[in-house]
Amino acid sequence: MNPIAIEASSLNKIFKTKMGLWKTKTKSTVAVEDVSLTIERGELFGLLGPNGAGKTTTVKMLTTLLLPTNGTARILGMDVVKHTAEVRKHIGFAFSGSRGLYNRLTAIQNLKYFAELYSLDPEFTRKRIPDLLELVGLSTCGNDKVETYSSGMTQRMHLARALLHDPEVLFLDEPTVGIDPVGSRELRQTIKDLISFGKTILLTTHYMAEAEELCQRIAIINKGRIVALDSPDALKRRISGDSVIEATIQAVQAQVLLDQLRVVDSRTVVELKNSIKPEKICIRTPEPARVLELLSPYLNPQYIQELEVRNQTLEDVYVTIIKGDKE
Amino acid sequence: MKRLRWGLIKRQVAVQVQVITLNLYSLGLFVIQPAVFTAVGMLLSHAAGNAMPDLVYNVIGGGIMGMWSGLVFTSTFDIVDDRRTGVLEFIVGSPTSLATVEAIRTLTNVIAGLLSLSVAFIAALAIFGYSLKNVNFWGAGVSLLLLLFAMWCIGVFLANFLAWSRMSGTFVDYLEMPVAFLCGFMYPIRILPVWLQILSGILPIRWALQAMDESLLGNRDLAFLITHWAVSIGISLIFLGITSWLQVKVHDNIRVSGELSSI
Prior knowledge:
The complex is a heterodimer. By secondary structure, chain A is of the alpha/beta class. Chain A contains 11 helices and 14 strands.
């Protein structure tokens, strides 16, 4: 058995838009550029990036909904362009938001319809639908119309639809967007359960904590290119073992503190986080003891109101990488 | 040959009826609109000095008008709404081809259009007191089946064309009235200029409808009917051939342009 579930090699997508009254001018937009990745069977892989970075376009190429301009992609060894119909039988996908379901139908009617699109055996469907509704926590409202569902319920319904034909590979595009914290936690648990059932999942998300909690490996994508790819721990190590010191300060005293911190070595980065009063400064440093020593005379409400020392989080890594890429 | 997927047909028809057919908009389209056309036809006929409205061109013509408009609007609405709601992506992303889904949906839309024709027939018999004494029933029956087939062939062609891009709906809207005028829904084709009569010849609906109209008026000329049926079937099959080519192009094009979704 091929141990690779998802494989993309130099994937490119350029959208061409006709412009002008007679549509004679063409504007090209590079959405994805030279994306290569390999995801093993049973792996939960995260694709992170800012809005418009190319996450959804990448997912849509891998799910056969978009044709790549260049490059190749294989799912379970099958080429997404040459073996489109076969690939579709083995993948499931769910996109964020309330779109993608017939709102005037009930959850069960929607699932029965999509089961027919996947040519599922009626007996299998009859047993599968209650099981799935149970899995996603919608078993009590399967006969309710989807238009009466909250965004969290719709999102879980998307997951049920994606799992209907028991696919080996799942693509979840921002599955917890718009869901309350309790709902998100439940959905994350469901995703963990799916991994324990042997599914391979490619997850795109904006939420760093979610990616850190769930994903074995993460790719950070920006402006259509993968700018980092590793495990969350390795990514955190990548920007050294820096500590982060966050201090809430009196705005009028900001300059005094910034002057003090200038004497620390060049590897320390000081950043004024926002302009509302009181302000926050964020210090990334390999020498937290030295910084704290410098700040200690100012540890009183006139200067520093709060001080927190912590290790780098995935969010810090993400911000550093994306900012570095911008510069 | 692929086996017929009865489960999909049943489910797709059920979804289509629940989502598209059974709402006030569609019922108005299939019932109120043909009634308006029939009323206008009767007024014109009366103004021309006729004591009774014409059975074929005023009363039944209104019903055919309702069938055709219903088909154009529901086919447009199907794709536009699926694009807007994001369902189109999930249909295209499934192993079932969009063309199969469109074929079943269009069949439902065509059959729903029979509601217009039924209302027109009931009105002809109950309100206007027309007699069915002279009607060539078998001729009218075969012609009606071929009319439904012709409408289905044009419907699946339009549905696939509509999937092509977000702009397609606008062009299809432009076709509604010209096709109705060219096919002679509410007047005989012979009153059109010759070049328009020739142009109307490319529409299979025109041939099946002409055979049905003549059968309703009692024409039993087998040669006339068979010729019209054969031409209608031939042109319908040409439309199907173009559609099978078009659906492959559409499937590729929408995945190049990214126009599966409206946002």
